[in-house]
Amino acid sequence: MMFNLEKSAQAFAEAKQYIPGGVNSPVRSFRGVGGTPPFIAGAAGSKIYDIDGHEYIDYVGSWGPMILGHAHPAVTEALREALQHGTSYGAPTLLETELAKMVVRLMPSIELVRMVNSGTEATMSALRLARAFTKRNKIVKFAGCYHGHHDSLLVKAGSGATTLGIPDSPGVTGNIAGETLTAEYNDADGLEQLFERYGEEIAAVIIEPVPGNMGMVLPRPGYLQQVRNISRKYGALLIFDEVMTGFRVALGGAQALYGITPDLTCLGKIIGGGLPVGAYGGRRDIMEQVAPAGPVYQAGTLSGNPLAMAAGLTTLQVLAGTPSIYEQLAAKTTSLCDGIRIQADKFDLTLQYHKAGAMFGIFFSAEPVYNYETAKKADTTSFAVYFQAMLEQGIYLAPSQFEAAFMSAVHSDDDIAATVAASASAFARVADSKTR
Ligand SMILES: *Cc1c(COP(=O)(O)O)cnc(C)c1O
Fold it and tell me: Which secondary structure element, helix H or strand E, spans residue 103, and what is its range?
């Protein structure tokens, strides 16, 4: 049967009449690869289903949260139980403390933690806190790192390794963007130079320890420790944005994997178990500045929502309570990446394969990719050909070269074998498209 997305195409056309671009978050619209996004009817385990009747093996996992797979029985049961007691109170509950205790136990750099509703809110609040704590205004971020869509962080690099911020979106004022300095990821010397010039003014360095939003990039050996040392030397806070990597690359996140102690950590995605949650936490003396303990204001009507807490807590309990789950996730990720590489090699396609724990990314680039500059050189046309060929064969990848992919605990050996087999014919199509 021909692969067709007729119902999805109709649904997309209708959605566009009521929702900007037809989607509630831009990358869902498939601008990066062309074609129609499948509209989703449901998901279970490692599979996701569209309204046209297709089944896909899912490596998006709602962009990270679904590390246990979709509709995990324990998470579903926890939600059903929570639902019987009402959906929101705007008052303290036992579940919030339980989840906070769990986070503090799994990430020792976190002594106090505040729940919010999204990763964006977490990084926004962490920056405000860092500025208040240090009484400094400037922030350093890295080109290609994404920390959510609020004004201070919606800034990319201008030309050169280190430039003053230029807004990435209309509506972000030059004044706000100007407080954001941009450095190149994996370049400790560049960061040091930025600090030599602006050190007294820099409140914090915010970093995705393992970037997953310019495609997946790995830190060079020792790099994260250098970032820690430089920020400490100049009295700036180090904020690890572990919204994606937290409970993903290891149970204790990238900070456990690489042995780094940040001052503040931002969380999201897995901590909500598929419901809208974010969190920020860290050193007690810093976090005690947050209202009502301290003067730094931050609040949320639905923060600590009982359904979200139930889903997040249960997800973390399963992760923490399943021996060797991260070894198994890493082994599956390795087996998949190795399988894909063998197929690509058959067509003389030299690609870059990056993986850490249950997260991986493949760049259509013959050159090493270690920062935003090198990521941007990837062959997005070939990626789009590969992506569409995979989709047609029932493999659901993120619809952009510049996103990571996620393994879940319920992806089976059969799922992996099917993905490798699909890659063989997808690479054939890529090779064919290159010779035209
Ligand atoms: C997804 C993501 C965010 C934003 O989280 P939202 O819940 O989408 O607001 C921030 N930082 C990183 C590293 C992310 O991957």
Answer: helix 94-106
- Which residue among 269, 280, 332, 386 is the active-site one? 269
Chain segment 221-275, per-residue pLDDT in tens: 999 999 999 999 999 999 999 999 999 999 999 999 999 999 999 999 999 999 9
Q: Measured in angstroms, how far is the CA atom of residue 348 from the centroid of ligand 1?
A: 35
Q: Ligand 1 center to residue 268 CA distance, Å?
A: 7
Query: Which residue from 177, 176, 191 is spatially nearest to 224, judged by alpha carbons?
Result: 191
Name the pTM for this structure.
0.96
H helix or E strand, kind and range, residue 340: helix 325-346
- Nearest CA to 428 out of 363, 382, 364 is that of 382
Domain 73-320, CATH number (from 3.40.50.1000, 2.60.300.12, 3.40.640.10, 3.50.50.60)? 3.40.640.10
Superfamily grouping for domain 6-71+323-435:
Aspartate Aminotransferase, domain 1 (3.90.1150.10)
| Burial tier of 407 (Cβ tally within 10 Å: 0-12, 13-18, 19+) | buried
